[in-house]
Design brief:
Blueprint: E1 2-3, E2 14-16, H1 19-25, E3 28-29, E4 35-37, H2 54-62, H3 73-88, H4 114-119, H5 122-128
Parallel strand pairs: 1-3, 2-4
Protein backbone atom coordinates (compact mmCIF):
# COMPACT_ATOMS: atom_id res chain seq x y z
CA UNK A 1 0.00 0.00 0.00
CA UNK A 2 1.42 3.39 -0.98
CA UNK A 3 0.94 6.47 1.15
CA UNK A 4 0.73 9.93 -0.34
CA UNK A 5 3.01 12.31 1.55
CA UNK A 6 3.60 15.95 0.76
CA UNK A 7 7.24 16.87 0.14
CA UNK A 8 6.94 20.18 1.86
CA UNK A 9 4.43 22.92 1.34
CA UNK A 10 0.70 22.51 1.73
CA UNK A 11 -1.15 19.25 1.24
CA UNK A 12 -3.55 18.97 -1.68
CA UNK A 13 -7.26 18.30 -1.43
CA UNK A 14 -8.30 15.24 -3.42
CA UNK A 15 -11.72 15.66 -5.04
CA UNK A 16 -13.69 12.83 -6.64
CA UNK A 17 -16.84 10.73 -6.66
CA UNK A 18 -16.57 7.31 -4.99
CA UNK A 19 -12.90 7.75 -4.16
CA UNK A 20 -12.70 4.73 -1.83
CA UNK A 21 -12.93 2.41 -4.82
CA UNK A 22 -10.39 4.39 -6.88
CA UNK A 23 -7.83 4.64 -4.06
CA UNK A 24 -8.27 0.95 -3.27
CA UNK A 25 -7.64 -0.04 -6.90
CA UNK A 26 -4.55 2.18 -7.03
CA UNK A 27 -3.43 0.81 -3.65
CA UNK A 28 -3.04 4.34 -2.29
CA UNK A 29 -3.76 5.83 1.11
CA UNK A 30 -4.68 9.49 1.37
CA UNK A 31 -5.40 11.48 4.54
CA UNK A 32 -9.17 11.41 5.09
CA UNK A 33 -9.12 15.05 6.20
CA UNK A 34 -7.94 16.00 2.70
CA UNK A 35 -10.54 13.97 0.75
CA UNK A 36 -13.68 15.61 -0.68
CA UNK A 37 -15.86 12.79 -1.97
CA UNK A 38 -19.13 13.89 -3.59
CA UNK A 39 -20.50 10.37 -3.01
CA UNK A 40 -20.09 10.73 0.78
CA UNK A 41 -20.81 14.41 1.41
CA UNK A 42 -23.97 14.48 3.59
CA UNK A 43 -25.75 17.35 1.77
CA UNK A 44 -25.42 15.40 -1.51
CA UNK A 45 -26.54 12.04 -0.10
CA UNK A 46 -29.99 10.51 0.00
CA UNK A 47 -31.86 10.72 3.30
CA UNK A 48 -31.12 7.01 3.76
CA UNK A 49 -27.39 7.91 3.84
CA UNK A 50 -26.81 6.17 0.51
CA UNK A 51 -24.88 8.03 -2.14
CA UNK A 52 -26.47 9.41 -5.27
CA UNK A 53 -24.99 8.65 -8.67
CA UNK A 54 -22.79 11.26 -10.32
CA UNK A 55 -25.29 11.33 -13.18
CA UNK A 56 -28.13 12.26 -10.80
CA UNK A 57 -26.06 14.87 -8.90
CA UNK A 58 -24.94 16.54 -12.12
CA UNK A 59 -28.50 16.75 -13.40
CA UNK A 60 -29.96 17.93 -10.07
CA UNK A 61 -27.28 20.46 -9.05
CA UNK A 62 -25.64 21.51 -12.30
CA UNK A 63 -28.52 21.13 -14.74
CA UNK A 64 -26.91 19.02 -17.44
CA UNK A 65 -26.51 15.33 -18.30
CA UNK A 66 -23.37 13.23 -18.10
CA UNK A 67 -22.92 9.67 -19.33
CA UNK A 68 -24.86 10.34 -22.53
CA UNK A 69 -23.56 7.62 -24.80
CA UNK A 70 -20.28 6.30 -23.45
CA UNK A 71 -18.92 7.08 -20.00
CA UNK A 72 -16.03 9.54 -20.24
CA UNK A 73 -13.61 9.81 -17.26
CA UNK A 74 -12.74 13.41 -18.18
CA UNK A 75 -16.42 14.37 -18.19
CA UNK A 76 -16.77 12.71 -14.76
CA UNK A 77 -13.80 14.71 -13.42
CA UNK A 78 -15.18 17.99 -14.70
CA UNK A 79 -18.65 17.28 -13.27
CA UNK A 80 -17.20 16.31 -9.89
CA UNK A 81 -15.06 19.46 -9.70
CA UNK A 82 -18.07 21.59 -10.62
CA UNK A 83 -20.12 19.93 -7.86
CA UNK A 84 -17.33 20.47 -5.34
CA UNK A 85 -16.91 24.11 -6.38
CA UNK A 86 -20.63 24.73 -6.14
CA UNK A 87 -20.83 23.21 -2.65
CA UNK A 88 -17.64 24.96 -1.55
CA UNK A 89 -18.96 28.42 -2.37
CA UNK A 90 -22.40 28.02 -0.83
CA UNK A 91 -23.37 31.00 1.28
CA UNK A 92 -24.73 30.20 4.70
CA UNK A 93 -24.22 31.11 8.32
CA UNK A 94 -21.02 29.69 9.75
CA UNK A 95 -21.47 28.56 13.33
CA UNK A 96 -19.36 30.34 15.93
CA UNK A 97 -18.88 27.18 17.98
CA UNK A 98 -16.80 24.08 17.13
CA UNK A 99 -18.20 21.27 15.03
CA UNK A 100 -18.78 17.81 16.48
CA UNK A 101 -16.29 16.49 13.92
CA UNK A 102 -13.47 18.53 15.49
CA UNK A 103 -11.05 16.18 17.26
CA UNK A 104 -11.18 18.05 20.57
CA UNK A 105 -14.99 18.04 20.55
CA UNK A 106 -15.63 14.36 19.77
CA UNK A 107 -15.59 13.04 23.34
CA UNK A 108 -17.70 15.75 24.95
CA UNK A 109 -20.69 13.41 25.28
CA UNK A 110 -19.10 11.22 27.98
CA UNK A 111 -21.09 8.73 30.04
CA UNK A 112 -21.23 10.88 33.18
CA UNK A 113 -23.35 13.40 31.25
CA UNK A 114 -25.98 10.79 30.36
CA UNK A 115 -28.26 11.80 33.27
CA UNK A 116 -28.02 15.43 32.19
CA UNK A 117 -29.10 14.51 28.65
CA UNK A 118 -32.03 12.44 29.90
CA UNK A 119 -33.42 15.46 31.78
CA UNK A 120 -33.26 17.75 28.73
CA UNK A 121 -36.23 18.54 26.55
CA UNK A 122 -35.94 17.93 22.80
CA UNK A 123 -35.64 21.69 22.24
CA UNK A 124 -32.76 21.94 24.73
CA UNK A 125 -30.95 19.05 23.07
CA UNK A 126 -31.45 20.64 19.65
CA UNK A 127 -29.95 23.90 20.91
CA UNK A 128 -26.67 22.16 21.85
CA UNK A 129 -26.54 19.98 18.73
CA UNK A 130 -23.59 20.34 16.40
CA UNK A 131 -23.11 19.39 12.80
CA UNK A 132 -21.30 16.07 12.40
CA UNK A 133 -19.69 16.80 9.04
CA UNK A 134 -17.08 19.21 7.74
CA UNK A 135 -18.72 21.80 5.53
CA UNK A 136 -16.81 22.33 2.29
CA UNK A 137 -17.49 26.06 2.46
CA UNK A 138 -14.75 26.13 5.11
CA UNK A 139 -12.24 25.12 2.39
CA UNK A 140 -12.64 28.57 0.84
CA UNK A 141 -11.52 30.20 4.10
CA UNK A 142 -8.17 28.41 4.16
Amino acid sequence: MWKIRPRGGKGRILVGHGLDHDLDRLQLEYPSSMIRDTAKYPPLMKTSKLSNSLKYLTQAYLGYDVHVGIQDPYEDCVATMRLYTRMRYQKHKIEAYPLAADAHNRSNQVAWRQNEFERMSPDEMLSISRSDYYCWCLDSLA
